[in-house]
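Section 4.2 – Deliverable D4.2 (structural model, holo form)

The reporting period included a commitment to supply a predicted holo structure for the target in complex with zinc ion. Inputs used:
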Amino acid sequence: MPVSKNKIRLPSMTPGTARSIAWLRFGRAGARPKVYIQAAIHANELPGAMALHHLMPMLVQADRARRIKGEIIVVPTVNPIGQSQLVGNSHLGRYDLLSRDNFNRNWLDLSGAVALQVGDKLSRDTAANVDLIRKAALAALKAMKPANELQTMRVEIMKLAIDADVVLDLHCDMDAALHLFTAAPDLKGAAQEVAAELGVQATLYNEPFAESLTFSGVNGGLWPRLAARFPGAAIPQACFSCTVELRSQHQVSDALGASDGANLYRYLVRRGVLAGRSGPLPRLKSAPTPISGMDVGYCPVAGFIVYRLAAGAKVQRGDVVCEIIDPADPRGPKARKPMRSRTDGMLFSRKRDGGLAWPGMVAYRIAGAKPLAHRKGMSGLDD
Ligand SMILES: [Zn+2]
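Output (structure tokens):
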């Protein structure tokens, strides 16, 4: 089966301009398991594109050797709107400039539309329910009439992903250790496999699933949302989805891309999408921790930021993670406002040294095992 290269054309938003999304299919349409992998929803996050750049030739090889058993959809840079955001020699790419929407929020929760279609047809037959729900989800997407470029992108991309068994959304952070976000029910199986194969340093999980409408959240969350609506029906977690944060924005190299690509390939073998032997699962580098145990440091004042700790550092409660310096304060040490960890854990995400800091800015995130009272009811997604 030759590799198929495809293009989604997005509607023009201004006279004389139009964008499109390139995507590739490896293996046969409809074969199982189906894995969907995309990178760069936040368009200035390209470590995932580098990993896919190294993975794709391996898939071409696998295809030639007839080793592809399932279907693999790859979208190397999913967001051409963000790719085009060149402003004054800077590439933006995190927010849609027209709607001011974060590109990884407000994806489509299809559970309501699917429930309307399948509610009276669901049964105790798990396989039949999965089939019914996937078809209804695709039908709901086909029935949509998106009004603009961003909505068209969301609808068309979800058509490629919503019936997948596995959805991997590749991101990165500004300065971060390799980590991933997933949902609690997947921890023992699918998430552990991805985390171990990729060698992640922190796995954070939502309980019971991601309420937020991130790309990963809507694909994986469809199933528990429907299961909650129809407790009498047998509705499994038929899609494992996760957000993989491939370290820092600036950490794009052939060495990392080659190892990430090889790790993704091994994961695909382990999942049975590719023929081959995956060998023993590598040991997890750290135990998963709940989102409720994630400490988030919000800058208290304006200034510029310097860190005392590198991404990946272990921290104790009370440790100074970073300081905000008031540039006009002449008192030396007193011009510095320290920010201290409020948990024991691992500093997995931070900003760059020397950046401007403003009140409320997220300065860092720490993965801790214990749920934190001060985080109760707060979103894990505040920037
Ligand atoms: Zn991102």
